[in-house]
Here is the input.
Amino acid sequence: MEQKTIRTVAFAFPQSSSHVQPGVYKCDAKKCDCCTTYIRSIKNFTSTTKKKTHQITDMLTCKTSDVIYVIQCARHECKKQYVGKTTSALKSRFSVHKRAIRYKQNTSVAEHFNNNNHCLDDVTIFPIEQISDKKALGEREMFWIRELGTESPGGLNLDVPMEEGKKRKHAGDFAPPNKKQKVYYEAEESMNHCYEMEEEARNIISQVCEKFQNVRYSDMKDREDVEFLNKLIKETSNLKDKNLKNKIYIGVFGKTGAGKSSLINALVNERELLPASTSGACTACFIEVQAHEKATYKAEIDFITKEDWKEELLCLVENCQQNAEDGESENEDSEDEDSEDDEYEMAKAKIKAVYGEIGLRQTYDELQQLAVEIPNTHKKTITSNSASDLSREISGYIRSDTESQQYWPLVKKVTLYVPGSSVLLDRIVLVDLPGAGDANKCRDQMWKEYLGKCSSVWIVNDITRAISDKTAMEIENRTIRNVAGGGECHNITYICTKSDNIDPHHLKRQYNLTDEALGITIPNDKKVKNKCILFRNNKVKELVKKNFNEKVKKKLLGTDVNSTEFFKVFTVSSADFWNNEEKKEHILDRDETELPALKEHIKDLYVSHSQKAVKDYVSKVSGIVSFLHIPKENTSTQTEDLKDKLFSELKQKFETRLQDLAKFFDDVYTEMTNNLDEGVKNAGKQCLINALKVLKPEKTNYSGYHKTLKALCRCSGYYRSRDGKTVDLNYALVLPMYAAMDNSFVSSFRLNQNSRSSIKGAFDLLQNDLITIDKRKHAAVELRLTYIKTELRILIADLETEVIARKKNIYNSITQSVQDTMDPAYKDGAVITGSELVTRIQSRLKEHVKSCKLSMFREAKKRVMDQFKQLKDYVIQTLKKEMDMSMKLALTQFPKDVTFPDVEDELKKMKGICKALELDVFQD
Here is the structure.
């Protein structure tokens, strides 16, 4: 090993000795988890494969940055080692490793400590060398990997790609990974890089908080100064504990039997977590699946209220009674398979589940006297040590085909917590949305809420019905429409399940395929089936993209953006995925099942959200640190004059940019008004025709349809049937209004992509154009301008969140307004009974549409435009108020009797973090 000059670095440990020997020491923090539990205090270390001992020549702690470190398994029979590098503090990098282990990520370290009876407690870590030249870190990492022999299988370092433009000099250098390995490696690195930068920024702001404890300002006379300093200290403290884990919801849609549950089980590597659909439907409750930091499995069950059940029970009993009164007459001549009395069957199933068989023979008043298992808190928690045990315990709450006591009609939502998962991570929530409809108004409202908050939507369908199933196509079209304008979704994924279900002979005949065309030289049943599956997978992907690509693009992005990331198609086989996992006979290999690729798709979604959250957080920390460094700057009269002049210039410039932003909103307002004027005119002309398409659809008969109309009225014009079809009179009435405004609305509110026609583009223009720093001219106030810049960035990030929330309300207000207008007719329709029920409900609703058509659509347009104007006023007023305050604080004289803490080291580190994140905060 080459000799190096011993250098002193920043470290923290007891200073009782006048000279501290090189080695690894524990830091002086009182509650450092890294030092308390995992780090080793050593002067030398030994390679567990080559048995050679090396001396540590630096003084190192968990706070030291730019280091090479070793992770070693503490188990006596194992002791495998891993060599890594980090430009951040070691404790920040270690937090990344801990998180990877906790969530079972696809890293060699995480996989080792999650297998073979290992756990996080078996981890030890220690730095071995600090490198002052960041560019040399990679070379030293490779040196130590070879020197200690930590390559797999003897150690935990896996194959990594060579640096671009370099050739391998040694036979022991690692071979580059294949294409799939490289994609996985890069995704993990991107994610871990985010974690590390967040952790480092959090450590820095924690150090600033500690320094703030020594600031004294009780003698200050100016109340505004005191309030400002209190606010600054509180803001700094809040940043230390700020939670960046806003949940990322992925909505999983599909008919009962499409394979949603099996798909989710395979994704989270829990075969028996969710029950797969059998002959009975798996209920109308919503199921959330997310990570659990503890080792146990947990279910939180949310019940509907007793008042909601009482209201629903009345409808269920009424449905059963009406069916008895209707007798057999309506069904005798039915030739339409869709005429099955869904409402009657669902009513029977719910009453029987809660009250047993006897409940079907009792009146509403008699059922009211029976006890119902709804806790007063409306919640119940169940824990278990295994997924299969938990699944059994909750089956009665989520399944309608179980022999045990059933409670599913009383359940609104079930949240399942799964111990660490490489898919769920710490923010991902998979939402299994019920495939069957429900006349319960409470669940109907939840359905709409989930549509609005899903960042990504998965449409799941059996591959054999992916193209031809008309009902599925209808669900898909309506789903796309609902999540686009009225939600925050920016990615739709189509997943074709059961790809292993195939008849090779039929497929070859259908496409006139030969073994040669399939690339088969030595045919056997397994090979032929494999090639046929892969051939069909590609064909189905092409057809799905052809049918949906442009439609999804128009709904999510508008017509003026070119992108390929908004719509993806996967063909998966959960059955063969498990066959691979359990080393059983299989047709598709693990990658061909496409479950690994789908997991990476989730990870990409996670990384994109995390990167934005981390960059916003780092910006805020950078701004605070810059602000605290301000009092150390030149406070001469000349500098004060510069600040006063700069404040006036910035204020004037900002007001001009605000006028530009206000004009942008006004232009959008004008365009939306013109579009809606046309939409109102068309809606008035077409309203009766569109209403009849819902009230009197083209069917051979109307057997049982009176119950659908009753359910429609009870749910204020919107109803989802058991097969997933929706009947939405409100939307049918306003369809011409949406058709007129959709493209411009989606383009304007597109916040995931920048363009001149979008609000995001207008925000970015304001942000980029406000502050340009001339170092020669503004050197004395550079950090003050940095603070203003970061404050504006965070403010705009908060405004974007508010815009998304208000966007949903604005878009949905058209339908909501019409629903409010139609509500008296819906209430009347819900209580109509007796003969000719269908005709009487249809007449009541048609009459109301006809009498209100002149005002109904104008009111809907007014509500939309009023809410849009309120959004514009909120944005402009918030920007003006907050930025006036930020500019004033940054460019005014600080109280002379306050000494701020020295944050020069923290400022230097924050500049490094911003550079690593390619974040334009500090001027180069």
About this structure: Residues 309-330+340-373 form one domain.
